[in-house]
Amino acid sequence: MKILITAAGSYGDIAPYTGIGAALIAAGHDVAIATHDTFAPLVRAAGPEFRRLPADPHARRPGGAGPGAGHGGQRALMRTAAAFIDELGAGMADAVTPGTELLLLSTTTAPLGRHLCEAHDIPALGLSLQPTAPTREFAPVVAGGRNLGRWGNLLAGRLAPRIVDRLHADATRALRARLGLPPATPGAVRRRTEAARPRVLHGFSEVLLPRPADWRPGLDVVGNWWPWHAPDAQLPPDLEDFLADGPPPVFIGFGSMASGEGERLGALAVRALRRAKVRGILQSGNAGLAAPDTSGPPPHTVHTASNVLTIGEGPHALLFPRTAVVVHHAGAGTSAAALRAGVPSVPVPVTADQPFWAGRLATLGAATPPIPFADLSDDESADRLAAALIRATTEPTHRTRAADAARRMATEDGIAAVVSAVARLAD
C-alpha cells in the first residue's frame, strides 16, 4: 500500500512514527511521513519519504516551541495551538499525493486528516500517543493530572473534543474550501467520524496506563512505538568514557520544553547534583541546558569541572539504561523510555499532557512525586530537586518498581500491532 503518516508538533510527537514507518517499509509498503522540516533528517534516516508540513515548531521562535510548549498558562497554550493549527491546514492538503491508499493520523493531525479522507475517499487509521476518548477512569490528559471523580472525568472527557473543535474552526473552513468540500463544522465532521466507530490504536503501555474498561471496542492500547535508530548506533566516545569513569550518573533533560532557560536551569541542576552528591549528564535540548563551566555548545559532548557532562542529541534507548535516575519533563515518550530502561524518574512536568504522565509514573511507584516546572523558580529550587534525587537514588522501591515495569513492557510490541492492523486493511 501507498501509506502517508502525518504527524505534527515537537520531537516527541514525531519520533515514534519513524519506528512505525521503518517497520511498514520492511513489510513491503510504500511509506511517506509528512511532518516539519526540522525532522526531515530523522524521517529520511529511518527510510520513509519526507513530505513537508508547515508550522515548524523550531522555526516559530528561537529555541523552538510547538503546541504545548512553554508554561504561560492555559490561555497562552490555546492561542499557540490555534495559530499552529491554522498554519498546518494548507500543508496537510499538499501532503496527500495521487495514489495514496491509507492515511495514518497522529493525535495532532487527526482533526484535519478527517477532511482529507472525505475529499480523497481513502481510509484512515488513528495512531494516538495519548488517550483521547472519554472515560470515567481519568480526566482528559490536558486537565493537569487531576481526578474529577467518575462522572466528572466522563463529563470533562466529553467536553474536551468541543474545545479541540473550536481550535480547528478557521483551519477547517479554509481546508474544506480548498478541497472542494461542502461547508461543515469540525464538530459535525468529528461526530460523523465517531459514529462509524473507527479503530484507533494507542501507542502507550498498559503497564503505565491500563486500557479503560468503559472504552468501546476498537479503541486499542497496543504498547509504545519506539523511535527508529540505526542498528549499529552507539553513544559518542566521550559519553562512553564519562559513563565508564564512575557510578551511573543522573540524566537531566527537558526535551523541547523550557526554551531559552538553559543557563538558569543548568546552574540549578549542577547545584542539585552537588548537594545530592551524584554525577550528572545534562542534555541540552531546546532549553540549551548546560553546566555553567562548559565551553562550547552541543551537539559535541563537553566535560566540565563539576563531574557533569553536557550532551546534545542521543538515543534514550542506549543511554537511559546506564543511568541512575532520569529527570525529565514527563512527555509521553520520555516517560515511557525511562520506564522501559527500568530506571526511576524525577518528573518535572511543564504543560499539556506532562502532568498526567508524571502522575502515572508516581502512581506506579517508578518515580518520585512530580515537581512542577513552575516550582523550579525560587531560591529553594535546587534543594527541592536535590531532595528528590536523594530519594530516587537511595530508596530501592522506585528502582524495583521501574525494573518490574520494564520486564512487563518487554513483552509488548506496539509497532508490530500497527503493521498487523495495516495488513488487515490492505486485505
Report the count of strand segments.
13
| CATH top level assignment of the largest domain | Alpha Beta
The dominant shape is: globular
Radius of gyration: 21 Å
Query: In percent, how much strand structure appears in the residues?
Result: 5-15%
Summarize the structure.
The chain is an alpha/beta fold and 427 residues long.
What does this structure look like?
The protein is α/β, with parallel strands linked by helices and 427 residues long. The chain has two domains: 2-224 and 412-426, Glycogen Phosphorylase B (Rossmann fold), CATH 3.40.50.2000; 237-409, Rossmann fold (3-Layer(aba) Sandwich). It is built from 16 helices and 13 strands. Helix 5 (110-120) packs parallel to helix 7 and helix 10 crosses helix 14 (381-394). The longest helix has 22 residues, at 74-95.
Task: Furnish the topology, listing elements before pairings.
Elements: E1 2-6, H1 11-26, E2 30-35, H2 40-46, E3 49-52, H3 57-60, H4 74-95, E4 102-105, H5 110-120, E5 124-128, H6 150-167, H7 169-179, H8 186-195, E6 200-202, E7 219-221, H9 237-244, E8 250-252, H10 262-276, E9 280-283, E10 302-303, E11 308-311, H11 316-319, E12 325-328, H12 332-340, E13 345-347, H13 354-364, H14 381-394, H15 396-409, H16 414-426
Parallel strand pairs: 1-2, 1-4, 2-3, 4-5, 5-6, 6-7, 8-9, 8-12, 9-11, 12-13
Antiparallel strand pairs: 10-11
Index terms:
7-stranded parallel beta sheet, Rossmann fold, alpha/beta, 427 residues, 6-stranded mixed beta sheet, 13 strands
